[in-house]
Amino acid sequence: MGPTGPTFTFTAALWEYQGAGAWVFVSVPADLAEDIRTVSEGRRGGFGSVKVRAGLNRSRWSTSLFPSTAEGTFILPVKKAIRQAEGVDAGDPVTIVLQLLL
After folding, report:
1. pLDDT along the chain (102 residues), means of 10
2. What is the model's pTM?
3. Are 14 and 82 in contact (CB under 8 A)?
4. Which residues on neighbouring strands pair with residue 64, listed in sequence order?
5. CA torsion sign, 10 to 32 to 23 to 85?
6. Which of 64, 55, 83, 68 is nearest to 19 (CA)?
7. Tell me, what's the pLDDT at 2?
């Protein structure tokens, strides 16, 4: 893992991807996405992803933010094990803490 970067906190609703699989995501608000784009410029991975350490209530996990051109933001996958541990699912508002790993 690389050095840690800034931390961002936001609240948004979980949503389920309507394609193959049962992926559940949360979208980063547009203003924070712009800040993340600026800070991570030149340090993004494949597909424009940004490595992060994510937190939801007591749960913490390492993953990546992925750009969503349709929404003009980044989306964060929220694993089933995390959702089960925290008692949340698609449609529920959650507060997410993201620490960029730059």
Report:
1. 83 91 92 95 89 97 95 95 97 98 92
2. 0.91
3. no
4. 51
5. negative
6. 68
7. 56
The per-residue DSSP string of 45-88 comes to -GGG-EEEEEEETTEEEEEEEEEETTTTEEEEE--HHHHHHHT-
SS3 25: strand
Eight-state DSSP code of residue 3: -
83 φ, ψ (degrees, to nearest 5): -60, -45
Q: Which domain holds residue 94?
A: 4-101
Q: Which two tokens stand for residue 8?
A: 């961002």
Look up residue 90 and give its DSSP letter: T
Task: Indicate which CATH number applies to the domain containing 33.
Answer: 2.40.30.100
